[in-house]
Design a protein that fits this description.
The chain is an all-alpha fold. It has five helices and no strands. It has one domain (2-65). Helix 3 packs across helix 4 (41-62).
Amino acid sequence: MKILWGLVGILLSYFIVRYRKNIVEWTGKFAWAERYLGMGGTYTVLIFLSIGVFMFSILYMTGNMDFVFGGLGNFFSSGS
């Protein structure tokens, strides 16, 4: 099941990059991104988001999420 969710995340990151123009047309430009990252900042944020989704998907799929984020303690767990 982890492999399936990992592949879904990888596909999602591909589609974010592939259709970023359509995403920006749908959501509009992010004012904070344009202000702090300059012209095209919204597209840059979408690329960074895509890279993050890709990396989390690979980590989850390979079972290395705990290895990378183990120092955060119970941040990703629920309950006591």
